[in-house]
Amino acid sequence: MRQILISGALSLIFALFGTPTLIRVLAGRGYGQIIRDDGPSSHHTKRGTPTMGGIIIIFAALFGYLGAHLLTGNSITTSAVLVFGLVIALGFVGFLDDWLKVSRQKSLGLTGKQKLLGQAFFAAVFGYLGIRFADVDGFTPISLYLSGVRETSLKLGVVVVIVWVVLMVLATSNGVNLTDGLDGLATGASVMTFLAFLLIGVWEFGQSCAITATSGCYQVRDPLDMAVFAASFAASCTGFLWWNASPARIFMGDTGSLALGGALAGLATTLRVELLLLPLGGLFVIITLSVIIQTLYFKISGGKRVFKMAPLQHHFELLGWGEVTIVLRFWIIAGLCVAIGLGLFYAQWVAK
Length: 352
Known about the structure:
The chain is mostly helical. The chain has helices spanning 2-28, 54-72, 78-104, 112-130, 158-179, 185-206, 223-244, 253-270, 277-280, 282-301, 312-318, 323-350, and strands spanning 145-147, 151-155. The model has no long low-confidence stretch (mean pLDDT 92).
């Protein structure tokens, strides 16, 4: 627990006090947000707000995680190294997209196919490496078995596991990206989800088969260290949220949203709760579904729309809801989804 607290404290301090410096650097270089002309008119006031703030989220989390290990003398685990690698790789893809937007002064950076290919490639590498590097007990960072609220008996082939990991990473990273449309919305929802994974990691460690060899114990490679990882990201997002809350002084950009989605998918796979990511990240799922529904109905109906605009948060903006009202109510939804996810996780343990 001491390591979790240290990691969270260091990440929070780094993000809270490092973000203003990043804001000055980005503003000085003119790296401001480009706003789509077809979006809500209220967003045009945000034009020029520094973007690529995801840089500070990633570095703050890394600083907190490494600092905690340095101060406690504990070893860095393979699981955390692999997930951090995925986070940095996806953050790089997002950075390229953000960079192209600000350098061209257009709202289009990488093409959709380029972003998806980049995400899929790094996710596949993560999936492949995750089923290697077995420890002395034979556990790898990513299991060959499908997991819901815990690992099941359904064994998947190597290829299927890699494809499954790719789909998870694509869905989660793009889900966070779609949610990142209002000040603080994606950041606040991510904090709640990371805290849920922190609790799951601590619980799995306390009920690990290595400690308590009972019928319902958990066979997870590095649950406690992944809780430290989750704490570092929850804290770095919290520190960033101080400056990202309305009216935002900085946006995370695709640099941050893709990285955060990768971190969430990485936690779900390494903690063996893959399908539990659906309720834990319920807000991201809802917003992603709104885009899918809008797109499909538009094509099927010949140009008609279900929502005034997708993603869903912009629909409510066009209905006249205030931005802060939408963010707060969507945070409530995110919190309820996290509560449902944790309830399902604990209910499975009680029913074992």
